[in-house]
Each structure stands twice: as structure tokens, then as C-alpha cells.
Specification:
mainly beta; three-stranded antiparallel sheet; 54% strand
Length: 69
């Protein structure tokens, strides 16, 4: 995940790059310990832009992408 940007409406936009045709899990966490699946993505062209709405009641949010099994 790269090019993370905070948009004027409070949303977070990021670029996911990786191997084309592979399935990736994008996970979120508020504490870097407990991770939750946010979305699954298949990179048809090797990259895609993802946008997440602001989370109410959460001071910070972390993202990670992993190749799905």
C-alpha cells in the first residue's frame, strides 16, 4: 500500500500495487495487534486505488495488504 492520502471529505485513499492476477486481502486495525478483513482485491493490472470512509470513534486506523491463500 502506497500513496496514502487524506481526502477533504475525511476519506482515506491509497494505492495497492502487486502482482497482476493475484488476490490480496486488505486488513484494518486500530492497534496493530487485532486485524480485521476490510476487503479482497484481485489486481487485474497490477494496481488499484482503494478508498475508505472515516471510522467514527477511532483515533487511528492502520492498513495492511497480504496475498490471499
Amino acid at each position: 500500500l502506497t500513496s496514502v492520502t487524506s481526502l477533504p471529505d475525511g476519506k482515506i485513499q491509497m494505492l495497492l500495487t502487486g502482482e497482476p492476477a493475484l488476490n490480496y486481502q486488505v486488513q484494518i486495525s486500530s492497534n496493530l495487534t487485532a486485524w480485521t478483513l476490510w476487503t479482497n482485491v484481485v489486481l487485474t493490472n497490477g494496481s488499484t486505488t482503494l478508498t475508505d470512509a472515516p471510522a467514527s470513534g477511532v483515533a487511528q486506523r492502520f492498513y495492511r495488504a497480504m496475498e490471499s491463500p
